[in-house]
Amino acid sequence: MALKITEECINCDVCEPECPNEAIYQGEEIYEIDPSKCTECVGHYDEPQCQQVCPIDCIPLDPKHMETEEKLWEKYATLTGNPIP
Question: Does the pTM of the predicted model rise above 0.85?
């Protein structure tokens, strides 16, 4: 399942550089996450880095983009060109 940034976002700029897949970008009003690039940091870290650094906890799972861990690993492999371990 991809993550999403809610309207509580204060545009503090700390999440965007932490994303190893470059899935976070500045939207019209707040930062947004491209669900086709979000792997919840699977393959890179044990926990989503954007959630770890967000000072206001506004990055929940996105129920509109449900994915199994297997799908997240497949996405990781596609995005990085690395094999699934």
Answer: yes
Instruction: Answer whether residue 5 is part of any domain.
Output: no
Q: What percent of the chain has pLDDT over 90?
A: 96
Q: How far apart are CA 75 and CA 73, in angstroms?
A: 5
Q: Beta strand pairing status for 24-26 and 31-33?
A: antiparallel
Other beta carbons within 10 angstroms of residue 77's beta carbon come to: 15
Residue 29's Cβ-count burial label (10 Å; 0-12, 13-18, 19+) is: exposed
Helix or strand holding residue 32 (H, E): strand 31-33
Cα separation of 42 and 73, whole Å?
6
Do the domain assignments include residue 33?
A: yes
